[in-house]
Fold:
Amino acid sequence: MKKDRIFVLSGIVLAFLFLHQGCNNSDEETDLINYSELDEIATEVLLEIGHRDGDPIFGALIGLVVFEDGSMVVGDRGTRRIEQFSEDGSYVGAVANQGDGPGELSPLFELVLGGEESLIVHHFGMENRVDYFVTDPDGDGFLYEDTVIQEAVMDHRNLMLGALSSDRYLVRVTEILRLSELDQVADRGVSESVLAVVDHHQTLVRDSISTLKSPLAIFNASGRGVSIIGIPPYQDHDRVKVLRGGRYLIAKPDSSELTFYNDQSEMDHQITLKVAERGVTEEEIREFLSDHDREHHQKFRSRIPEVKPPFLDVWASDRHILLKTDEVGEEQEFVLLNREGDPLGRFHLSTFDDIRWIEGDRIYSLHQHPEEGHSIRVYGLNL
Structure:
C-alpha cells in the first residue's frame, strides 16, 4: 500500500514539474521578438539631394557624414569630390577635390566623423593616408588641417571607424591575406580583426579591445591573382558603429549581443536580443543563386546557414537602435528598437538604400540607383 502511495505521489510531482517546465518554455517563447508580427512603421522621404533639372549631380556616392546641426558631407568616388550640404539640402560648397597631394582625393577613400564635429578622410590603396579637416571659423565649410601617412605594414591595415575624442580614434585592424594564405582561411569562412585605439598620428594607444569576425567571400585563386565571386547570404558579421560623443556600439549576431561603450572603452550597458528563429528557405537560396554561375552554386550552398542571424547590420542613436534583419528581392527589412531593446515596429526600404546614419526619427541613406543615379535621401519615421 505504501509503495502504491509513493508511486502516485511521485507521478503527481513529475506531472507538476512537467507542467511547470512547459509553462516556462511557453513564457520564453512568448518573450521572443517575432519580426513578422511587428507593426509596420510608415516612412516618407523628407529630403532628397541628387538631381538638378532632372539630371543626376553625383557619380558614385560612397560616404556620408551627418553633423549635429543637420548639415551633411558626402563623398563621390565617381567625380572624386567631397561636397557639403546644409540641413535643408542647400549646397554649401566643395570640401576636397581629386588630386595626389595632401587634402586631395585618391580614387579610393572613405569619410569618417571626427572629434568636435570635424571630418576625417581615409585613403586606401598603395598609400594608406589620413587627411584631417576642421570647421572653418569664418564660414560654414571645412578647412584642410593635416595629413598622416600610416606606416607601411605588410600584414595588417587600420580602418578608421570614428573619433572617441579630439585626438583618439577607434580603428579596426584588419589582416592582409597573401595569396598563399587564402586557402588556409577559406574553409573557416570567416576572417578576424581587432578593435584598437590610435592617436592623431595613427600610433597605437590601446590594443585588442575586442576581436571581430567578418564573413569571407567565395573566391577563385590562380597564378594570375584572386577573383571575388561573392559572399553567401545570412552570414554572421560583427559590426562596430561610433556614435556622437565618442561612444560606440559593438554588435555580434552569433551571441545576439549589442554592447554599448563610453569614450574610455568601458562597457556602458548590454542588450541580449531574444529573437524567434527564422529559417532560410529554399526559395531564398535559389533567388540568391540565380545571380551566380551554376559552377559556384555548391560552394555557396555549403556556406549558407539553416537559420538567419538575428540581424545583418545595426545602427544606433540616443533614442533608438535600428536593425537590418533581412533582404529579399528588391526590399530590405528593418526593425526599430528603443534603447532598452524593446521592439517599436518594422519598415522596408529599397535594396538601393545604403543607410549611413540615424538621428531622432530620421534615417540618412545613400540611395544608389543604377539607372536613375545616386542621391542622398533623408527618411522620416512616423512613430
